[in-house]
Amino acid sequence: MIKVTVWNEFLHEKMHDEVKDVYPDGIHEALKAGIGSDGFRVATATLEQPDHGLTDEVLANTDVLVWWGHMGHDKVEDAIVERVHARVMAGMGLVVLHSGHFSKIFKKLMGTGCDLKWREANEKERIWTVNPAHPIAAGIPEQFVLEHEEMYGEHFDIPAPDELVFVSWFEGGEVFRSGCTWFRGQGKVFYFRPGHETFPTYYNPTVLQVIRNGIRWAQPSGAAKPVRGNHQPLEEIKSK
């Protein structure tokens, strides 16, 4: 069973009625309900909890961390970012959603500004599967439509993805690399674009399937920890 922790700021839902109407118990609870029936053990954590809910114990019992953030990026303590970063480098998977592209942890792992174009215009988004053989695309159609979403557009200031799985098109003409993966240390990172807080995106069955696939892909590989530093020749090691 894959141990998943869904992290959410849980700020918009408390401050803005239009968000609370869509996610009355928080985006994290909607995600937990949406993915929890698929053989995952799902817990949640939020910004206002001690250590933002990401204690050493919680992270040690997390195979994949799902991250949604927006208005509280600057409120995430640097020490917690370092803690999460260390766990990713050691093998924990990270799935970053929507405006989490500007989170401290994502920017630290990418090493770039991670900025982009955006527009809140209640537009149609068409998501194309451009790597149909990728595990994250399993069971996903060639393309699917979200009738109402926030626009994100290129240029997206990220390092070239190790793998590009999805590309989005918007009514205004913009395109966006909306499903990207990277390998960092022993860990894997998946960024998936949809999920503006005023739209019911995280109730969409195809979106939830992508997130479930991303969690499975990002789970720890179980490979042995690499040995680094001054190293004996393999023949010397074998003789001992």
Major sheet characteristics: 9 strands, mixed
How many angstroms does the end-to-end distance come to? 38 Å
Strand segment tally: 9
What is the molecular shape?
A: globular
Which runs of at least 5 residues are low in confidence (pLDDT < 50)?
none
One letter per element, helices H and strands E, the order comes to EHHHEHEHEHEEEEEHH
User: In order across it, which strands form the biggest sheet?
Assistant: 2-1-3-4-9-8-7-5-6
Q: Mean pLDDT score, rounded?
A: 96
Q: Helical content, roughly?
A: 25-40%
Query: Any idea what the radius of gyration is?
Result: 18 Å
Beta fraction: 25-35%
* Helix vs. strand class: alpha/beta
| Helix segment tally | 8
Organism: Paenibacillus glycinis
Protein name: Trehalose utilization protein ThuA
Domain ThuA-like: 3-218
Pfam family, one: ThuA
Describe the model.
InterPro entries: Class_I_gatase-like, ThuA-like, Trehalose_catabolism_ThuA_prok. The protein contains eight helices and nine strands. With 240 residues, the chain is of the alpha/beta class. It starts with a strand and ends with a helix. The longest helix has 14 residues. Strand 3, helix 5 and strand 4 form a beta-alpha-beta unit.
Question: What's the short version?
Answer:
With 240 residues, this protein is α/β, with parallel strands linked by helices.
Provide the fold topology.
Blueprint: E1 2-8, H1 12-15, H2 17-22, H3 27-35, E2 40-46, H4 56-60, E3 64-68, H5 78-89, E4 93-97, H6 104-110, E5 117-129, E6 143-153, E7 163-170, E8 175-184, E9 187-192, H7 205-218, H8 234-238
Parallel strand pairs: 1-2, 1-3, 3-4, 4-9
Antiparallel strand pairs: 5-6, 5-7, 7-8, 8-9
Helix pairs in contact: 5-6
Pfam families: ThuA
Organism: Paenibacillus glycinis
InterPro entries: Class_I_gatase-like, ThuA-like, Trehalose_catabolism_ThuA_prok
